[in-house]
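hey team, just a heads up i'm posting the complex here instead of the shared drive bc the drive is being weird again. everything in one block, sequence lines first with there labels, then the predicted structure for the whole assembly after. its four chains so it's a bit long, scroll down
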Amino acid sequence: MSTALDTIFAALADPTRRAILSMLLEDDMAVTDVADPFDMSLAAISKHLGILTRAGLIIQEKRGRVKWCKLDPDAMREASIWMQSFGQFEAVNLDAFEEFLQNELGTTKQS
Amino acid sequence: MSTALDTIFAALADPTRRAILSMLLEDDMAVTDVADPFDMSLAAISKHLGILTRAGLIIQEKRGRVKWCKLDPDAMREASIWMQSFGQFEAVNLDAFEEFLQNELGTTKQS
DNA sequence: GCGACAGTCAACCAATTGGTTGAATAATGA
DNA sequence: TCATTATTCAACCAATTGGTTGACTGTCGC
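-- predicted structure starts here --
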């Protein structure tokens, strides 16, 4: 099942990458600017950004010679939903949760 | 910041370990029983369980000669909260989600 | 006490990861 | 046009990961 979660969680497992995501929460950034605060080569940061992109956690868009990085919440949401079936919901009715989710998915699609 | 998230997300990055967590959502299990559905040595599963334990995702408790594994939702919650700060949960409608949660918690507590 | 069962440990292996450096590509500006 | 800036690529390295096997350590039932 879902190799997507593999790459998402693996991407989130690295503190440098989580820090990058936090930075991008503030604002979109160019690769060089992302790299600046880190004590690490630009190439290393470029690799990290590649991993985040492949995981679907960010989007990279090239304008001119600079490549802009912006957060893409979709992947995070997918992982978050998976996790929430464990966390808060063990004290809570799981069936109701599923019903809720299906309802949500239904309503967003039809209206 | 928080090396705890490192080990939690790393633990969640493996599909075998996520499958184990799903199994434990149903019921507490002995190590041998956890290993049963997997096409993998018992030692390998034992390692996976060690990783899940160190990440704080499960608790292992030895009773007699069998070691019981049970879910520990605390670590998952911690990671989940971190993720939620990236929010933008438009698709699932977080307001409705919270409302749902409060409802659930209310009803399970009072009746 | 003894054989069978539950689980871990230790040594090993191949593949992956996170970093480096130096060269390559591509767009910019003077 | 040419040096500069932005970014990636390729080769390499050490450390980690996910798996194996075989030996070891309890603990149970008879």
